[in-house]
Write a structure and sequence with these properties.
261 residues; mainly alpha; 11 helices; elongated; Reticulon-like protein; membrane; Reticulon-like; Reticulon
Length: 261
């Protein structure tokens, strides 16, 4: 019995040593993992999210969600189809107006006059008929345009018009050649599109695009941003070539002389 115990003791000691080594290794690895977890958890989540966002390319340098870019509120809800019934109704009404005025060649002034004639005739006949049938006359509501929304719209339009005038003044002063060329190209493209269709059709196309492009972009945001990143890199490359071959050869001595004076 004693010899058998002496024979098994070295084996048991080896098993115990290996078990102790495994325990030490596991404890050290778990401590290192816990240290890494603490380090990662010690980093603020805002910095991590900001670093991730900084690496992602967004179209037009956008930092806010699409809903915020469109102004938020009810107009953005309509453009992004948050309520399908309201968005469909608005788009359907715009389509009906475009078909009525563009395809059927019905004029706005004629439509307004015909609607007023029909409404006044119905109300006039109804008011006179109530005396014969002994019923109360129709209650015509008093309609007043509130002052505050009109002032808000006028103020918003004034701010946007002043911004546009400032931008046009900066472009005309010759300070930024790149902005000048981009505005000229945009106006030229707009003039070509305007020669294809009238203002009503152009307005309707822009209205339909507002109801389709933002919601499609919001749905396929990552794919569009990755494609736009490649396209923007190619545009920068082509602009650099254009700058070297054309823009750099334009004499700018007169402009520098004016700035020194």
């Amino acid at each position: 019995m004693t010899e058998h115990q002496h024979e098994e003791s070295p084996v048991e000691s080896m098993v115990e040593k290996t078990a102790d080594r495994d325990l030490i290794h596991n404890s050290s690895s778990s401590s290192s993992d816990s240290d890494e977890d603490k380090k990662s958890s010690s980093l603020p989540s805002s910095s991590v999210s900001e670093s991730i966002k900084s690496k992602v390319f967004r179209l037009f340098g956008r930092e806010k969600p699409v809903h915020k870019v469109l102004g938020g509120g009810k107009p953005a809800d309509v453009f992004l189809w948050r309520n399908k019934k309201i968005s469909g109704g608005v788009l359907g009404g715009a389509t009906a107006a475009w078909v009525l005025f563009e395809l059927l060649q019905y004029h706005l002034l004629t439509l307004v006059c015909h609607c007023l004639i029909a409404a006044l005739a119905v109300l006039f006949l109804w008011s006179n008929a109530t005396t014969f049938i002994n019923k109360s006359p129709p209650r015509i509501p008093e309609v007043h345009i509130p002052e505050e929304p009109v002032l808000q719209v006028a103020a918003a339009l004034r701010i946007e018009i002043n911004r546009a005038l400032v931008v046009l003044r900066d472009i005309a002063s010759g300070k930024d050649l790149k902005k000048f060329l981009s505005v000229i190209a945009g106006l030229w493209v707009l003039s070509i599109v305007g020669s294809w269709c009238n203002f009503l059709t152009l307005f309707y196309i822009a209205f339909v695009l507002l109801h389709t492009v933002p919601v499609i972009y919001e749905k396929y945001e990552d794919q569009v941003d990755s494609f736009s990143e490649k396209a923007w890199a190619e545009i920068k490359k082509q602009y650099a070539v254009f700058d070297v071959k054309v823009l750099s050869k334009i004499p700018r001595g007169l402009l520098k002389g004016k700035k020194k004076e």
